[in-house]
Amino acid sequence: MADESNTDKLRKLAHFVTPYKSRLILLFCLTATMTALSMLPPLVMKFIIDDVITMGNWHLLEVLLFISICLPITSAAMRVWVSFTNAYVGWGITTSMRRFTYEYMLKLPMRFYDEMGTGKIMSRIMSDIASVRSMVTSRMLGILVDFVSFWVALALCMGLNWKMACLLLLLMPLYFFNYYGWRTPMRESYSLWRRKMDQVSVGLQERLSGVQLVKSYGRERREHRSFAEDTHESLDAAMQTATNRAGYMAGSWGVSGLRNTVIFCLGCYYVIEGEMTYGAVMAFFSYSSRMFQPILNLTQIAMRLQSVMVSVDRVLEILDFPIEIKDKEDAVELPPIKGHIKFEDVHFEYKEDEPVLKGINLEVQPGQMVALVGHTGCGKTTLTSLLMRFYDVKEGRITIDGHDLRDVKLRSLRTQVGQVLQDSVMFDGTIRENLLYGRADATDAELIEAARIAEIHEFIMRTPEGYDSMLGKDGIKLSVGEKQRLAIARAVLTNPSVLILDEATSSLDSLSEALIQKAMTRVLKERTSFAIAHRLSTIVNADIIVMMDHGEIIEQGTHSELLQIPDGKYRQLYEQQAAGSIEEAVEAMAS
Ligand SMILES: Nc1ncnc2c1ncn2[C@@H]1O[C@H](COP(=O)(O)OP(=O)(O)OP(=O)(O)O)[C@@H](O)[C@H]1O
Ligand SMILES: [Mg+2]
Questions:
Q1: CB contact at 8 A, 357 and 551
Q2: Is 109 close to ligand 1, i.e. is its CB under 6 Å away?
Q3: Does residue 513 belong to any structural domain of this protein?
Q4: Which residues form the domain of 243?
Q5: Is pLDDT of 378 > 90?
Q6: I want to staple 165 with a disulfide (CB 3.0 to 4.6 A). Which of 157, 231, 241, 340 is the partner?
Q7: Does position 526 have pLDDT exceeding 80, yes or no?
Q8: How many domains are there within the chain?
Q9: What is the C-alpha to C-alpha distance for residues 514 and 97, in angstroms, rounded to an integer?
Q10: Does the CB atom of residue 113 touch ligand 1 within 6 A?
Q11: Where residue 384 sits, what CATH number does that domain have?
């Protein structure tokens, strides 16, 4: 992307503007007419000074007064129209850009979310897109209008005094020199400011989501100080941008001052010589600023473009992110899964040269329950993420009923594999809406059956409006265990052929866990399942227990088989946990 020109980048965003082409043309025509009308007053003034006041042609006064009254009324009406159309086009572009970017983001792999983070994504979708919009509506339109305005003003100036007009043209390059001098510092400081703002927004998002942690450790002051530091840095960067802008503006004003002085001196000279009237000098003065204003605007737009290009780059960072995980051209629908799953020499890494899974070989027969056990960070969740194809394997392959995951349609795979995570997400909405998230057409009977399996039906019935009670900001707040049981019900309802339970029952008390376990045995019987658990008591009945260590499978078998391995890691872990529970029991009895 580094060698991509600004034009290429802008072209990529052009299709957001295309649907508004006719409105933009209308806007341009309106603004051009307004600009042309705004050229009239100096001419009217010239006639009043030279013809009415100096020459005494009083009959002209009526016409001139009529023009003077009509002009502002027409301009005001057009201004209202322009302002509405501008808002319509501007918001239309912003909305469609945000919609498109979000739709694109949904296709992006998990790697994108891992790398970018919520705060950065938010600031790109909200602020950067808004900044790109302002370029399209107000600035681009300005360029077209300025172009018209420049030529009209130049023609009028030439008509009034061509020698003076030519001399003025010689001053024009000074504006461009000024612009080129400030261009790079401006872009750099703006880019720095945007990065600092990212830091502020990411930091704020983290601090808000972790507010309980902040309070529980009494870290309010320290967090406030570190937030203040972040904002201070962004303020420094903003001031640097403002300083560069001020420097550029001062340069432009300097050139404009020089231009005025030249006109005054030459104007006086030509009046004394009798080559120009007072009115003509006044009109020339007005038109010369109209002639220079577009040049000034153009350099200002080019300057502003420096900052908009930073935003364009940041939006394109999302839109250029490759959709690595997608259906192949010849991808087939995965037929209803029977549940024969094979991991064949699977290697995987999140970051280059930092292997997380190193040669996993595992075969699971339909209907079997597989338990993944191992110390934290050994790659259990990663293994199941590969099964959902959130990431692609680096080497080796994973097959379901003989189909390589990369050869089947993603949707047909993911709709048949259910997942319950430790940290379950519930959206704002009713309990019913949340449960139906994976299968909107489930009947009430099925809904209740799923809730009963997850041992959450009684709880739901105790809430004020049962299945129609609201969750989230304005609704009932759930405990982690309740949320987890809802998540289990949600997964059960989709009736997946393969079910992944990642620490799904870890937040439940032993009684609810035992109850769910009992109900789940019935559900799991017909499907292949992967259960990840630190509490081994929950997985002793699994058909295969897979003991992992540093991305490798070190032991594999049933509970009783693994217990027979002398010095086996599973055996050690089981004995430790058994001893732990005895100690806990002893402690409990002693207290
Ligand atoms: N999105 C990610 N990006 C980069 N590295 C990751 C990512 N997710 C996990 N890892 C790393 O991969 C390794 C395996 O992580 P994984 O989540 O699979 O472990 P786990 O066995 O599920 O651990 P736990 O029992 O704590 O849940 C860890 O070292 C972790 O730091
Ligand atoms: Mg995990």
A1: yes
A2: no
A3: yes
A4: 6-319
A5: yes
A6: 157
A7: no
A8: 2
A9: 50
A10: no
A11: 3.40.50.300
